[in-house]
Design a protein that fits this description.
Blueprint (H helix, E strand, L loop, with lengths): L1 E5 L4 H9 L6 E6 L10 E5 L5 H7 L5 E4 L11 H23 L3 E7 L12 H4 L7 H20 L2 E7 L1 E2 L8 H4 E2 L1 H13 L5 E6 L28 H7 L14 H4 L11
Bound molecules: nicotinamide-adenine-dinucleotide (NAD).
Protein name: NAD(P)-dependent oxidoreductase
Family: Belongs to the NAD(P)-dependent epimerase/dehydratase family.
Pfam family, one: Epimerase
């Protein structure tokens, strides 16, 4: 198995790099930022998501692409202008390069912010319907849609990972529900790379939190069994946290929903 990881210099990319080191025949690591020197079974390549030809070249001989590159948050200012290049144009280039290069599978780092305006009590099956809470969230809906189209039209296998909050440990009450530990994140990616063939699927990247908003029972074929639980920090987190913003508290996306929110949150059913 030959794997290419885009965004390998980033926070999640670095954890996957070390967590899956030496597991595959080749782990090709790509980023626009500098990367540590290649170890055994690794190659490094500098590539920009805006460079379609560079992406095609980086995907030569690759079976599975793990896409962890791009803008990972809603920027404070000029959000759309900042999200547009890497998360829209770059994500089109990702899938188009995979098609041209004959890649079999792409793991796309989506986000729960693709559906952040769902209320916290909403069942997982309903939250699969997009309800973005930000321009960043819209870019993740775009990536999921692009992946689905490439799966249906071109036969690419695509797994969208709706990552929760990736941290060493949860630090606010909402994260007690949406936290994903580094260990579980690496395991989810491993499952995505190694699962039997499928067409398209969306899975939540979340640990086994007592307070989870989501469950992954519909995608049990992946074999993902998270082991960590944010509840271990619940006492400490609850004791040290102020009440949530009224426009954040009802919704899965938290403060992404509250940012620039107009009106009464009850209008969002
Ligand atoms: N960290 C989280 O809690 C979280 C939650 C939900 C989703 N995600 C998603 O997971 C992915 C990884 O997140 P992260 O926290 O590791 O982010 P990060 O910012 O640490 O890593 C992103 C990497 O992408 C690279 N990159 C940016 N623009 C690029 C371009 N044009 N070409 C090539 N590389 C480029 C950066 O250099 C960086 O190394 C992102 O897509 C993010 O949206 C993260």
């Amino acid at each position: 198995m030959n794997v290419l990881m885009l965004g390998a210099a980033g926070g999640i990319g670095s954890a996957i790099r070390s967590g899956l080191a030496s597991r595959y025949a080749l782990m090709r690591l790509a980023d626009i930022a500098p990367l540590d020197a290649a170890g055994p079974g690794e190659e490094t390549v500098k590539v920009d998501l805006l460079d379609l030809d560079g992406l095609v070249a980086a995907m030569a001989g690759i079976d599975c692409v793990v896409h962890m590159a791009g803008v990972p948050v809603e920027p404070e200012t000029n959000a759309w202008e900042q999200v547009l290049p890497a998360n829209i144009v770059g994500v089109h280039n990702l899938f188009e390069a995979a098609r041209i290069a004959g890649v079999k599978r792409v793991l796309f780092a989506s986000s729960h912010h693709a559906a952040g305006f769902h209320r916290r009590e909403t069942a997982t099956v309903e939250t699969l319907v997009p309800r973005p809470d930000s321009y960043y969230g819209v870019s993740k809906v775009f990536g999921e849609a692009m992946g689905r189209m490439y799966a249906d039209k071109f036969g690419l296998q695509v797994l969208s990972l709706r990552i929760g909050a990736y941290r060493e440990r949860p630090s606010d009450p909402r994260q007690l529900a949406v936290w994903v530990s580094p260990r579980d994140m690496v395991e989810l990616v491993r499952c995505g790379i190694e699962a039997p063939d499928f067409g398209y699927a969306t899975v939540y990247g979340v640990s086994a939190n007592t307070r989870n908003f989501w469950d992954n029972s519909a995608v049990a074929f992946l074999g993902y069994e998270p082991r960590d639980n944010a509840e271990a920090w619940a006492g400490e987190v609850m004791a040290s946290s102020p009440p949530e913003d009224p426009a954040a508290a009802p919704f899965q996306g938290g403060w992404y929903c509250a940012k620039d929110f107009v009106g009464d949150p009850s209008r969002v059913g």
